[in-house]
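Listing S7. Sequence submitted for prediction.
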Amino acid sequence: MVCWFTSFGYHDDAGCRRALGEFHRVLRPAGQLVIETMHHDGVVRHFTAAPDATVLWRGEDAQVDLSRFDPLTGRIATDRTIYRDGAVRHSSHFIRLPTPPEWTQWMEAAGFTHVRCSAGGGGPLELDSWVIVVQATA
């Protein structure tokens, strides 16, 4: 099972742990889970808080993200504004960024074994790695 491109972490800690439990439940014995997401330490080292914003333009349309990191919860919270065809939409979301020891603890509590963390691209995980790939066996 693959959970790719930061599609994990949009719940509180209990919800994230439930999701891992469900991943374990639906995998066959010895099945593999691979999660790719942002690496907590790399993000924290290079994070620039609002008022700096990430702006994506597509013609006359734009998406503006203002983000902040909460060190007490390990979450990046983002306020998003989308300007499209003269209309404006606002939304907010957060992503939980577990540390490697938290990943191991959460995965093992969900029933997984052989938990491994590497950098995106398969190299060794380093402090400056922006991406973490977590692999585990059901």
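Caption to Listing S7: primary sequence and predicted structure tokens for the chain studied. The two ends are 10 Å apart (CA to CA). Residues 117 and 134 are 5 Å apart (CA to CA).
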